[in-house]
Amino acid sequence: MGPLIEPGKGFRDLKADWKCSSCSIFAALTSLVFVLSGAIPMLASVANSAGLTSRQAASFVMCSMAVGGIISIIASLYYRTPFYFAASLTAIVVLAPMFEEFSIAEMVGGFIIAGVALFAIGATGLMGWIGEHLPLPVVLGMVAGVFMSYGLDIVSSIIKDPLSGCIIAGTFVVFPLITKKVPPHIIALTAGIVCAVFIHGSSFSGGFDDGAVGLSYPYIVMPDFSGNVALTVSLPLVIMALADVFKGYGVLKSNGYDMPLNTVTTLSGIGSVLAAFGIGHTISLAGPVIAILAGKDAGEKKTRFVGAVIYCCAVMIVCVLSGILIPVIMQLPETVIDLICGLAMTGLLVSSLQGAFGAGKFHMGALAAFLIGLSKVTLFGIGAPVWAVVFGLIVSLCMEREQWGKEIQR
């Protein structure tokens, strides 16, 4: 059993390391648009289908995001790494039927058990051991496959909305010819807002009723551990949270960061337990957001944590003012959002493909992981990221035994 908190740079010299640039602001803004237009509406949809009251729904969304935001700020500053912990989006697909089967108190009990399990997995050092023995090309193949859909969204968005698509993608491609001082993603984001207003007629004047405006507060629920919540609720959530951890691990690895796997899993467990009392479900790494915050377009590698901290502070504000801000951002057209987020993923796609197939080893395992990740297949309630790594390892062990032998000798 290793230390609960693995060594990091700490909080010393933080003032000297803190350098905010336009790239940091871009990464934070793009990530915020991504979450406001995707994650939070998805959480709200689950809360609505589960029949939660307005206060319970607000708490469900707030605690799922805010607890992760606090942990993210601390971890990003301590490790100088762009972390983002949030509610596991892969778990959303199974939450709605769970709420139909169990009471809110029982669901909270299941969330707490899942958090304790994640804490135990991290504290025992199991995640670190797995990470040390996983071939990196296989992990990066999974990342490239899972996130390739964002790249494909660029093409489909241009086809669906040719005028806006050509303007946004065109500014992204052409603007570096004019100047490289401003990241092209900032220009693409600006062009997207202009297209939303002048082409799609978004007024950004509100779009919500008066009852939706107001501050959000946690709605505390005491847990009920009766029934089979541990097996039906906790186990699937733990598996999906671990899949998110490995996805985030692959994203950070592809951008040159050494992630403390044990500590991240431990923090996910702690955050999950804290969020559970406010009806928030399991907290884990949010791979798509980390891909934006940790990418090369977010600035120098040593200062990318700044964008993560700025973004997490913005998320905390959004959680409290969600009734005002979310309806406004939701007026952005879907094609514009998909295009902006897809362009933000281009750096990750390039680096992960290079790491998967340019390393000169484990090509077949990486290819299997890539194809399964791209397929988005779900078996026994377990998503593609897990199966991509599992079958990628199996293929590699069967077809690349000589390379495994060399790695073992090292």
Automatic annotation (TrEMBL):
<dbReference type="GO" id="GO:0042925">
    <property type="term" value="F:benzoate transmembrane transporter activity"/>
</dbReference>
<dbReference type="Pfam" id="PF03594">
    <property type="entry name" value="BenE"/>
</dbReference>
<protein>
    <submittedName>
        <fullName>Benzoate/H(+) symporter BenE family transporter</fullName>
    </submittedName>
</protein>
<dbReference type="GO" id="GO:0005886">
    <property type="term" value="C:plasma membrane"/>
</dbReference>
<keyword id="KW-0812">Transmembrane</keyword>
<keyword id="KW-1133">Transmembrane helix</keyword>
<dbReference type="InterPro" id="IPR004711">
    <property type="entry name" value="Benzoate_Transporter"/>
</dbReference>
<feature type="transmembrane region" description="Helical">
    <location>
        <begin position="269"/>
        <end position="293"/>
    </location>
</feature>
<feature type="transmembrane region" description="Helical">
    <location>
        <begin position="111"/>
        <end position="130"/>
    </location>
</feature>
<feature type="transmembrane region" description="Helical">
    <location>
        <begin position="369"/>
        <end position="395"/>
    </location>
</feature>
<feature type="transmembrane region" description="Helical">
    <location>
        <begin position="136"/>
        <end position="155"/>
    </location>
</feature>
<feature type="transmembrane region" description="Helical">
    <location>
        <begin position="185"/>
        <end position="208"/>
    </location>
</feature>
<feature type="transmembrane region" description="Helical">
    <location>
        <begin position="83"/>
        <end position="99"/>
    </location>
</feature>
<feature type="transmembrane region" description="Helical">
    <location>
        <begin position="58"/>
        <end position="77"/>
    </location>
</feature>
<feature type="transmembrane region" description="Helical">
    <location>
        <begin position="229"/>
        <end position="249"/>
    </location>
</feature>
<keyword id="KW-0472">Membrane</keyword>
<feature type="transmembrane region" description="Helical">
    <location>
        <begin position="305"/>
        <end position="330"/>
    </location>
</feature>
<feature type="transmembrane region" description="Helical">
    <location>
        <begin position="162"/>
        <end position="179"/>
    </location>
</feature>
<feature type="transmembrane region" description="Helical">
    <location>
        <begin position="336"/>
        <end position="357"/>
    </location>
</feature>
<feature type="transmembrane region" description="Helical">
    <location>
        <begin position="25"/>
        <end position="46"/>
    </location>
</feature>
